[in-house]
Amino acid sequence: MGELGGFKKYERKQEINAAVTDRVKNYDEFTSPLSIAEQQKQGSRCMDCGIPFCHSGCPLGNLIPDFNDMVHQGEWKKALEILHSTNNFPEFTGRLCPAPCEKACVLGIIDEPVAIENIEKYIIEKGFQEGWIKVKKPEKRTGKTVAIIGSGPAGLAAAQQLNRAGHSVTVFERDDRIGGLLRYGIPNFKLEKKIIDRRLVILEAEGITFKTNVNVGVNYDVAKLKQFDAVLLAGGATMARSIPIPGNDAKGVVQAMDFLTRQTKALFNKKEEKNVISAEGKDVIVIGGGDTGSDCVGTSNRHGAKSVTNFEIMPKPPMVRSESTPWPFWPLQLKTSTSHEEGCDRNWLVNTKEFIKNEKGELTALRTVEVSWKTIPGQRPQLIEKEGSEKVWPCDLALLALGFTGPEKTLPEQLGLKLDMRGNVNASTSDYATNVSGIFTAGDMRRGQSLIVWAISEGRQAAHHIDAFLMGSSRLPLKDNNDLLSA
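The chain above was modelled as a monomer; its predicted structure follows.
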């Protein structure tokens, strides 16, 4: 695959980012692609390894060496066909996936891994540019109907697969626009919404019905679901984690997803501008060091925050791959995002003890303590506070980016569904079926908070099993995810 010895000839190169001073002035994507010749060189770095561990790293099972080779040869249309055979939405994963495939790349043992995610993005963008991505309607309809609740990546992937199998698919979304977390939870500077909209045009033309402002179980009676032959729950894990400490009711303590959603909605609806939670001129503290926390940092900088500080309760990861997570596993390693580069004071091993508020109930500061972790064999690690390390930080806006505890329970309860020990809707990977016949679940609603690439994979897997449930067997692709190296 690729050019013989190409990995020795060419260095890894990725897209060029706009200067920080320029990109923080707006909410647009800020990358510039490499030249076509350079893109093909990046495909040439794929080294024809004996066992392509990138396959094991990818939940979708993308045929990475195959499309890399096509890019190397300049066969972009063939590369697109290979990529689309396993991934419904490379335009999403090529922007948002943390690329576990790259962490499992064999070249990564001795050098920088192949720039797989960027190559994926280049392939799909060239496909749209050249008009190669066509509407594919099913040859015939089966007469079966499927309701999909939730229009995030899992729901959309399942919808396209089931529609291709000939079933009539209706997607319900409680928000005003289709896309789920992709639409409002991901900042525009990471995913411009026109990227979602151009794909929706295709999905609608293929015959999928979308219904917005429909909150099943609230303004849509669950009894109406009985008119469908099968139902897929793909509503995500939206129960945000909070901090049960004094002062958490202060004005200025805000869930990260609420902060991000309001900002993105305001970009497309002038009426929503009054609902923006502004960080302008404020001392902002983001609690939580994951991707959502990073998104809050980038958004706060674009608002014109006075200062942006980030707290993480865990130790600072090493700069290089930790010995505890050797190749080809997902590494314990420090990640610095483009948002961090735009300005952020990052702090590790910090535990927030109190939100301090004034007589008006407004947040004015945070009280913290430094901590360490004590490992005891056979027990969960213990959090140890460092005596005399308390500190008060000025703060007008605290953004809680602490992850999610699972799906909302209203709909599962109304449908009589069992939950697992973690509070997710109970369904195994063997068939994605719940305890109620004809009702399936996929994505974060089934497995808990996870990656976009897992959501698409789950949607595709669930579609296969729903098709088999309806027809007795299925020709939709099915991938065994049990041996994957990524979590």
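The chain has three domains: 6-130, 145-238+405-471, 242-402.
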